[in-house]
Amino acid sequence: MAEIEPEASLKNTATPHWIRVILDIPLTGPFDYRWTSAVPVGTRVIVSFGRRKLIGIVIANPEQPGYDVKLIKPIEQVLEDTEPLSLDWLRFAEFAADYYQRPLGEVVLPALPAPLRRIAAYHGKRSSGGPVARLDARKTLKRVDSVVSTAPILNKEQQSALEAVTAATSFKCFLLFGVTGSGKTEVYLHAAADILKRGLRVLLLVPEINLTPQFEQSLRQRLEPVAGPNGVAVLHSALSDGERLNAWLRVQRGEARVVLGTRLAIFAPISDLGLIVVDEEHDSSYKQQDGLRYSARDLAVWRGSDLNIPVVLGSATPSLESWAHAEQKHYQRLDLTERARAVTLPTVRLVDTRRLKMDHGLSPHLIQAMRDRLENGEQVLIFLNRRGYAPALHCNSCGWVSKCSRCTTFTVLHRAAAGRHQLHCHHCGLQQRVPSSCPDCGDQDMQPMGRGTQRIEEHLSQLFSPARVVRIDADSTRKKGSAQALFDSVHAGEVDILVGTQMVAKGHDFANLGLVGVLNADAMLFSQDFRAPERLFAQLMQVSGRAGRHTGHGEVIIQTGYPDQPVYQALIKHDYAGFARFTMRERKAALLPPFSHQALLSAEADDLNLAIAFLEASRQTAVDWTQENFGDNRITLYDPVPLRIVRVDNVCRAQLLIEGTHRPSLQALLKHFLPHLSTLPEARKVHWQLEVDPLEI
Ligand SMILES: Nc1ncnc2c1ncn2[C@@H]1O[C@H](COP(=O)(O)OP(=O)(O)OP(=O)(O)O)[C@@H](O)[C@H]1O
Ligand SMILES: [Zn+2]
């Protein structure tokens, strides 16, 4: 740690000045350059590196360079079109780099909008002064008229949650544990307004923005009267480079006082921060799945503690990690036990499918309940977490099943335009024509195997004709804005039956939706991943929570072949706490998180044996080191294993799980062991990466 040295440097008057710079390259830095004067820490500079020119960030002005003076090149250009990155922001990035075991340059530079780190944006033919100058020249600030909005009066529970949050004048982490529809959003909005009135700023993280544009809209309406017109900036990965740069600059320049964003917004260069909110804190989209594999939720807690400000984590189904913190009183729990609109939680019913005659995957109970609701003018949601027409195509005479040639998976049958079908691999993207006869036996009796959202949509349209059926999943929402249009039509009452994947479960406040039907929930029940029941519970609780939000009397029907499973039994009672107690006991017995900490080393190679050999050698290195340094078995190194889907796009994958009950020891091992891995002879033919606190195993 402490590579960044803000103080020492600028006093140094000797020339030339040595400038220490980090770059986004896989080599261990930092790198020293010279310049005619001191350069403030956090400044972006253009330097040459080998034959390339790169944009880097100044982290120190050392008195002496780190290597031979003769080798040190001058900086090419000091970029002054933005303020230097602030010291507290750099400290935050340094923590992330250290914790997730990545070089600082690979954390800091990717966190900036692309034009600020891309050399072509400055040296290209049409760069005219760089991206910031170009943007400022073009910018005509659109004035948004602030609408005075009507905030509902908080109920007692909301009010006391709000008071707890706004009373915190130093770091405190709150777990806002509120049932679905309990009005957590209102608590965030009121708390945010209070913080803004004190002249401070607010960061609000949500799992998804594109799916809930209404949320962005109501946030603007409610907070712009306090934050100022254009006082809200939105940051997420679907923005264009220009939009992202614009929002980022507004945040850095202090024009935007509220930042609403997805996980990447945790790296927003926001100063005078007074509150961080993480909505749906259990959601796995807070975890970045490539590059720097960070958890924005965990980083939010660190940032809050570093800045000494309150942090609010909200959920109806908190992660067991956060729940454990609350149990141990590290976090303060704030409970919202009732729905804000004074309506009841939905009734959850399990339909045991084992002895039933099903119609295209639908039980008679579900069909009848749908009829009743539709007749009553209410909307129905059918939840099935499986897109496509059918999970595979199958030959009835020889048993052949459609498989991907590049991955160890089935290919999924999709209905393409004009009713034609295609086979898609959901892992590598391969698309194939449907064979007219079985490739193995030549028989023409090929049938779809199982059901996806498209097939259910097709069947429901026939069964409930003329009801208006709409499907919302990754396929039906590929075009920009199409998800919003589809959700708008649901809110406008132009849809009777909504079929969807987990996209429909998150955060939507449907006014007229009375019934939720859940198909094929069991698929997640017997996964090898120890977190599968936790995820299943959260998902089903979320989707159930869409029923009866405004009018009450909502109903949820879960079709299952295993009604006795604890997950389902807890769901019918809306008993998150009971589920958590049960699951926590299991985790404790097996010493799994949150009772231990994990890291996952994964390796990819053309040949599975190469990946395993590398992991085996890595394991040995780690075993030797822990024996020598700890002399005990406080760290467990499991055997390397192939991934469940071992080959994807012709690359074989395996992983090594490292586990320890004492986080600092685990961190010490990782720190020691990573630099050795690339020197292992077995490393030559593999790609490897390390993930700290993996969510999926
Ligand atoms: N104090 C209040 N009085 C009346 N209505 C309220 C109040 N607070 C919130 N609401 C309304 O209750 C509904 C549910 O609120 P909200 O969507 O914030 O719940 P939530 O806790 O985020 O739920 P979920 O976790 O299911 O997404 C919304 O329609 C909201 O406008
Ligand atoms: Zn494939």
Automatic annotation (TrEMBL):
Its cofactor is Zn(2+). It catalyses: Couples ATP hydrolysis with the unwinding of duplex DNA by translocating in the 3'-5' direction; ATP + H2O = ADP + phosphate + H(+). Keywords: ATP-binding, DNA replication, DNA-binding, Helicase, Hydrolase, Isomerase, Metal-binding, Nucleotide-binding, Primosome, Zinc. The keyword Kinase does not apply. Zn(2+) 1 binds at residues 395, 398, 438, 441. The keyword Isomerase applies. Zn(2+) 2 binds at residues 404, 407, 425, 428. GO terms for molecular function: 3'-5' DNA helicase activity; ATP binding; ATP hydrolysis activity; DNA binding; zinc ion binding. It comes from the Bacteria. PANTHER family: PRIMOSOMAL PROTEIN N. Initiates the restart of stalled replication forks, which reloads the replicative helicase on sites other than the origin of replication. Recognizes and binds to abandoned replication forks and remodels them to uncover a helicase loading site. Promotes assembly of the primosome at these replication forks. Component of the replication restart primosome. This is Replication restart protein PriA. It comes from Jezberella montanilacus.
